[in-house]
Amino acid sequence: MSKFVLIGSGLAGGLLAAYLGRRGYDIDLYERRADPRAGNFVGGRSINLALSTRGIHALEQLGIADDVLRYAIPMRGRMIHDKSGNLHFAPYDRDANKFINSIGRASLNTAVIEAAQRYPNVRVHFNHQCTNVNLDSATAHLIESSLEAEPALSDSRTGVSPADAGRQIIQKGEAVIGVDGAFSAVRGAMQRRIEDFEYSEHYLAHGYKELTIPPGSDGGWRMEKEALHIWPRKSFMMIALPNPDGSFTCTLFWEFEGPRSFATTKTDDHVRRFFDEEFPDAVPLMPRLLEDFKENPTGSLVTIRCAPWYYKDKIALVGDAAHAVVPFYGQGMNAAFEDCVVLDECLAGFPNDRGRAFAEYFERRKKNADALADLAVDNFIEMRDKTASRTFRAKKKLDHFLEGLLPGIYLPLYTMVTFTRIPYASAARRARAQDWIVFAGLFGAVILLSILLFRVIPG
Ligand SMILES: Cc1cc2nc3c(=O)[nH]c(=O)nc-3n(C[C@H](O)[C@H](O)[C@H](O)COP(=O)(O)OP(=O)(O)OC[C@H]3O[C@@H](n4cnc5c(N)ncnc54)[C@H](O)[C@@H]3O)c2cc1C
Question: Max Cα separation, the chain?
Fold first, then answer.
């Protein structure tokens, strides 16, 4: 069976290695970081994530969904915190059994790596950083780093660390698959080699910072556990997801620059004043607010689009390496997992023509990744601004009402994206059509009502 070299053992890399290992391919998976099971997990990003139907489906196909979900906390809806500390709960779906799952990045990463290692034909090599790829010979150039040479977070944007001191390795496969995240070295090699390679990156004006609400003195959760908490403040917001240890991980999404922004909030006094004004109910729950704010990095939020995602039968890109999206639909990892399922299906569909399999995979996924990228940006506006409004809550109620009235015909966009596997592009199209029909219906009803009133009250 063919040998594949996989670069990057993040969430999608481990999962893809398991899928390809199951199909009998010989897999060498290289990861620049240390083994997350050694207790030194350096995610660099969100400590926990929302796992939903698409991601769960991918895990189910490997028989590991139940194991993973054992460590998850259901989030049944949004808990909106207004400035006065009032709470409004809005369920995600009319069916209370539909919820998203808060899951730790480290435990999920471990689960997929262990799933891959069940197959003797999969070998995982930590502390190996890919520095270049020869596309035509499907050869990866790697540097084996020591633990001390672990790349710093600040290096993640270049994908290349100063750890050149390590041993150089050249690994040839029949194909190299880049599962190495938003700042992919494999994609970098494609950009350099493929003349008309399309690439765009778009950074939001907002960055993010993670903060913590620790467990209460009894070890329990200090806010509603089974909800995704949102403090919407129009141009910015904070969210919090529950963790199994009784804590919450909060993420503040805020402008990098501006009169009130990360740039201007430097002193403890500034931080304290900003939080007291904007999130007064959260402050008493955050005893380490000032330390967290100072010590935790401020991350950036990028949308990356590129094409093609493959080169002949030699190279393919999967997950964030192909399509990084901003996190506001909670779908980046779910979509990356869906990539793995589709690539596996395509390889099975064209067992003797890998180039065709890669092309088919790209064809099936690209338009959906593009649609998700747009949905994710739009959802930032919805979360930070609209969730606070009565109109938004009324629209959600109308959505759920129509879904009940027209089962299988009307599906709210959030439901399609989160609780079904309808391709993202189809979901976006269908939601636009539904909105038009509802708008036309309401407009028609208003006209009809006006005519009736006009007849009943003449003059
Ligand atoms: C704040 C935030 C919150 C998020 N929340 C959610 C959520 O709730 N739900 C959701 O579905 N998604 C969420 N996402 C998106 C999700 O994190 C990503 O989509 C997902 O991690 C993509 O997986 P991946 O395996 O493609 O990339 P990554 O998880 O980034 O993994 C890439 C791996 O490649 C390794 N690597 C990189 N370069 C090299 C190299 N040169 N050589 C060797 N190895 C290399 C890295 O060390 C890493 O382990 C969130 C993202 C952010 C930033």
Answer: 91
In this structure, the residue with its CA closest to atom 19 of ligand 1 is 332
Tens digit of pLDDT for each residue in 141-157?
Answer: 999 986 544 444 433 44
Which of ligand 1's atoms lies nearest the C-alpha of 319? 26
Atom in ligand 1 nearest the alpha carbon of residue 49: 8
CB burial string 406-416: b at 16+ within 10 A, e below? eeeebbbbbbb
What CA–CA distance (Å, rounded) separates 26 from 21? 7
Q: In this predicted model, what pLDDT tens digit does every residue of 12-48 receive, in sequence order?
A: 999 999 999 999 999 999 999 999 888 766 555 668 9
Query: Would you say 227 and 76 are in contact if contact means Cβ atoms under 8 Å apart?
Result: yes
- pLDDT tens digits, residue range 246-284? 999 999 999 999 999 999 999 999 999 999 999 999 999
Prediction pTM value: 0.93
Written as one string, the DSSP assignment of 188-230 is HHHHHH-TT-EEEEEEEEEEEEEEEE---TTSS-SS-SSSEEE
State the pLDDT at residue 165: 65
Q: How far is CA 201 from CA 51, 105, 208, 264, 306, in A?
A: 25, 24, 18, 26, 9
Q: How many residues does the chain have?
A: 459
Q: In the chain, what is the straight-line distance between the N-terminal and C-terminal CA atoms, in Å?
A: 85
- Residue matched to tokens 């070890």: 219
Rounded to an integer, what distance in angstroms lies between the CA atom of residue 308 and that of residue 311? 7
Pocket of ligand 1 (CB under 6 A): 7-13, 30-33, 45-46, 49-50, 129-130, 159, 179-181, 185, 208, 251, 319-321, 327, 330-334, 336
What's the 44 CA to ligand 1 centre distance in angstroms?
9
